[in-house]
Amino acid sequence: MKRVLIAQAGLLVLNLLLALPAAASWGSFVTTGTTTISPNTSCASASTGSATCAATSLNHTLVVNQFSGTSWSGWVSLGGPVVDNPSCTADGTGLVVCAVRGQTGAVFTAVWNGTAWTKLASIGGHVTSAPSCAALTSGHVLCVARGVSGGLTSSVFDGTTWSSFVNVSAPTTAGPGCASDGAGNVICATVSTTSTVLVDRFNGTTWAKVIDIAGRATSPVNCTPMEITGEVACFAKGTDTAYWGIRFNGGSWTSGQWGGWGTLGGLVGPGGSCAAYGTGEIICGVVGVTDSALWVNQFAGAGWLGFVRVGQTALGTPGCTSLGAGKALCTIVGVNGKAWSTVGP
What we know:
Elements: H1 6-9, E1 30-31, E2 42-44, E3 51-56, E4 62-67, E5 76-77, E6 82-90, E7 96-102, E8 107-112, E9 121-124, E10 132-135, E11 141-146, E12 152-157, E13 166-168, E14 177-180, E15 186-191, E16 197-202, E17 211-212, E18 222-225, E19 232-237, E20 243-248, E21 262-265, E22 268-278, E23 281-288, E24 294-299, E25 308-311, E26 314-324, E27 327-334, E28 339-344
Antiparallel strand pairs: 1-28, 2-3, 3-4, 4-5, 6-7, 7-8, 8-9, 10-11, 11-12, 12-13, 14-15, 15-16, 16-17, 18-19, 19-20, 20-21, 22-23, 23-24, 24-25, 26-27, 27-28
């Protein structure tokens, strides 16, 4: 990211330059089971204190796991073959929807109702990246991926069926990162062919327009709700190996509603994962370059507290999600392919 962009941020509430002593407290690592999985997991919480996670197994199947608040049920395969990383989101009615790219380029989905999974099934499409899913209004979920034309392609789940895919023209090089803004919209961000970040907003019916919000990303973009109506925050690894963020302040869909890029610091591996754990409060997890450990940074409403080493030795990118009640869950995959989790702050 270009440091000149910091000036654009000014003194916005999301001051990404603070580096105060961290006060976050994270629990011991808990094993998620003995199944060997690919490095990146996706998790979502449909009820306070619990979570559902998905990953791709080394046999190219979609595997899923439930966290009760203290322990894991164990990984179960829903079938395949699938490629890339899955994306899971809660729909606001108690369901968790997970999507993944199939071996032929179609999108496959499965839904957890709190008791059982639906069959992994194709919803069509032809995509070239992992999908990213986020809730629209209650009971409605949007899943978005990079299409074969280089733009974005998306489908909406209404609780029963999936819509036809809709394409958005954009010069992208990576799959999107999407998040609900809490106002019935989903905001997605991706990397352009010139490494800047492109964003668009979907209102449940139509896409607004693609906006270039500058920056210089060297990883896929990860977006998270702010738990403030209309607002989201998006993050990516910069050219200096630090983690950078930007905030959409809600309102009209213009570049002026985006703050400027600011650095969280750190020396980041492949990328990061962020989640809101309270109103206007965010946790970001990354794997460090120097030690491959999980590091977390906490935005407590006024500024970032600085990266704190949580530990373990990990591959890929963490998967973090809100658990409600001021807590977040982050999962990592160790060098032996087994996943672990920790809860904080």
